[in-house]
Amino acid sequence: MADQPVIDVAGLRKDYGPIAAVRGLDLQVPRGSIYGFLGRNGAGKTTTIKVLLGMARPTGGSARVFGLAADAPDASVEIRRRTGFVSEDKELYDYMTVDEIVRFTAGFYPRWRRDLEARYLRALELPAPAKVKTLSRGTRTKLALLLALCRGAELLVLDEPTAGLDPAVTEQVLQALVGHVAQGETTIFFSSHQIAEVEQIADRIAIVDRGRAVLAGALDDLRESFRRVQLVFDREAPQAAFRAAGVARVRRQGRVLTVIASGGAESILDEARALGPISVDVAPVTLKEIFLETVATED
Amino acid sequence: MLWYKAWLETRWRFLIGLAILTASACGTVFVYPQVMRLLPLAPSISVDGELGRRVQEAVQLSREYRGYIWSQWFRQNLIQTWTVFAALLGAGGLLSQSSGGAALYTLSMPASRSRLLGVRAAAGLAELFVLAAAPSLLITLLSPAVGDRYSVVDALAHSACLFFGGALFFALAVLLSTVFADIWRPLLIALALAAVVAICEQFVREVWPYGLFRLMSGEAYFRTGRLPWPGLLITSAAATALLYGAASSIARRDF
Q1: Beta partners for A62?
Q2: How much is the pLDDT for B230?
Q3: Which residues of chain B have pLDDT under 50?
């Protein structure tokens, strides 16, 4: 059971009328990982999360959390009992005070962490007697995070947790997440299009585009395997059709030919040198570049 | 905790309804001495048609206190105001929260949708019963102040007729609230339907001895002393069916 993924999605499809929001998504989130779910707006991230938590029913495929079918009503209740969630818009009950919504939420979770509640109320500077409707977006996000973290959950599902926050609050939220994971066996699955923050805390990622995972794996492995090979010619760069596997993208610009390789650079270097460039430069690729190249490849 | 949430969400509607009905109940009792003074003038009132018939009937009923309370309170003031609040308390809920986004927070809790809806409906029904019974019992309490008595049993029997008969409008508003994402359309549609039913009952009153508002007013109990069990059972069953429909509707919905 320890090897069983916490989240296991296979061929997931979700249509809203004629619009296909998710089209055959495959995803496995290992236990104990911090899993970044990257994608552009409208890529299907929020829809996938809603399916995982039983808020939307899949049109096809399967979605399992803790080995339980997410679309079965009873199993879905059990999934939510073991999961903390922060929604994209961080909407909470405006008519409750901070203290009331904490008490309300704690009532559902037998493993509610009162010690963490006290710590985060203090650390995140949350005003217990204030009405939720009076809180700023940043403070509301911190409250939503507290409500998710204190559930004693095995899995945290966070939908764009830092969207709309200033850099200081974003850093505070990310540090709270990393600190939380460091204390236990919690798995974090968070969606974002903020690549820098994913790079900062995630150990695994999936890039989703148009409802399908176009790239997934351990972040270090991806960084290791992606390379940019830049060839400079003393003439106009030639049209080149590389036969080697793992060529993600080829771009010609004047005398420069840039090749993004997804399976290491070695396989294409021989072909590249055969073109007669005056210089060959192999460099690592940032996650942002991987994301942009992967998503651009899909265009 | 869901009960507490339901209370927080509906408390102002409930408290406003309670305040209005309490004031109305007080008014109904304390106006009675003036009604008694005006009764000798009543035979001079001559109005034709249904309105005239109703005026004459109200005059006849007002000659005794029990008849006056039934005619003015249970058949008129209470039933009209209570029906508005039945629709108002039924409107809203999970779907109307979704426009504000808080629905996702509710749905992230380890509670089934049927439980979410069930607690919300049960809290609303409890509030509705208080809205029917509390002001009516206040009439019993205040009646000695005008030198009369009104039985607790009568107050509760009429309240029960109103509650079990009128729960239909509450359940309809709950069902409509699983279809429309605002509280106004369920409220207005339920009230429009109530108005249509009330008007139709006036037209068929002479040929059709049954009617929802007649049931809600407890007319059968007033005239015979017996509760209209078949009618109450039918309306309760219909309200239950509407609530079941609402639970099925919300269970199928994507958020």
Answers
A1: A10
A2: 93
A3: none
ipTM for the complex shown: 0.86
Q: Domain with A64 in it: what CATH number?
A: 3.40.50.300
Distances (CA, A) of A147 to A84, A124, B109: 8, 12, 11
Length of chain A, please? 299
Closest-CA residue of A relative to B116 is: A77
State whether residue A227 is helix, strand or coil: strand
- Report which residue type is found at A247: V
The parent domain of residue A230 ranges over: 226-298
Residue-wise pLDDT for A227-252, tens only, equals 888 999 999 888 877 777 778 788 88
In a domain, A2, yes or no: no
Total beta-carbon pairs less than 8 A apart between chain A and chain B: 68
> How do residues A129-150 score in pLDDT, each as one tens digit?
999 999 998 899 999 999 999 9
Which residue of chain A comes nearest to B113, CA vs CA?
Answer: A73
User: Are residues A93 and B254, on separate chains, in Cβ contact within 8 Å?
Assistant: no
Is the separation of the CB atoms in A161 and A192 below 8 Å?
Answer: yes
Q: What is the DSSP letter of A277?
A: -
Count: domains in chain A? 2
Whether residues A54 and B4 touch (CB distance < 8 A) is answered with: no
